[in-house]
Amino acid sequence: MFVVLSGLAHVAGLWVFPSIGILDLGAPVLPMADVSISLREPETPVPPLPEGQSPRESVDQGKTVLPEERSGAVAPERADQPPAAPVAREAAPAAEALSPVAPEAAAAAAPVPAVSAEAVAEATPAARSQHLEVMPPLRKADEFLAPGREKLTYRITMLGIPVGEAMIEAVRGREREEVTITTRVRSYPVISAIYPVDDVIETRLVAGNYLITRIRQREGTFTGDSGFTLMMREKKAFWADRLRNRYATHLLPREDVTDIVSGFYFLRNKRLEVGQPVVLHLFDSNEYAPTTVEVLRREGVTLPGGRTVDTLVVHPLLKTAGIFRRTGDMMIWVTDDAYKVPVRMETAISLGRVRAELISAETGD
Question: Which of 175, 194, 334, 345 is the most interior residue, by most CB within 10 Å?
């Protein structure tokens, strides 16, 4: 039975296939076409269409070329975005292909002929806005940090018991007028089991016109992740609390406002005299606060290891809670020389009075 059915199928195939024609399954359905794009500068620019001539065609070297074949405009992604420049298939250079076109040209349905990048840049405000002038810096990097790098390490004690360590590292960037200051305070593992502390504050001076600060805190059960950007030229501050989704914008009365960390580095580069206070303009705890720093007295301080140095005792009259969630006044001892290295700091927190003493200092270019 199977032999009979197979024979009938072959006979039917021989009768049907000749009526369809010869099928060559090895040949491609559509032949491949070679397409080449030249990015060379045209020897002669393509002239615009003269008035009165049909926009459907133009004569180019003795043959008819449709405008759609010569250039194709790319539709903008948004209604308020100017359309991109037409891309020429044969001779338009890459710079012309990326040049923007005036919105008036996009409103018209007629295609836009390829033009030079210089002509587009002179004719359209959108292209001129691409060449933004870099504003000169308002603040210099050496106002905050004279050497290329400085790293200070402190031992933190409370009631005479070592409880943690602090590190302040300042680095001048390779870009113009850029400084990054990183401060980290951590409790020792034994203390962290009772009251963990892990605070990181990073401040960046960018191009001499912006100060960007981020503060991440973990102190006991409290956690925080906030930051702000000081726009010096615009005299504005944008503050954000990332954990609680709170945001605020402030107008600043001055251009020389800093945060606490960079403000302290700025203070170190000023001349300090006993009895002559210095005013710092700080932004802290989501508010602007002009702060007076009193220079109280000269005092000798013995560092860990037995070395004694001459210092100036300064007392910043901070009006805000500030970083490290302090609850009392802060006193700072800085060396009585041109460097004004902070060798001791004392303040009060919820658990008691805390002291930080310098145990190592590194500087370099």
Answer: 334
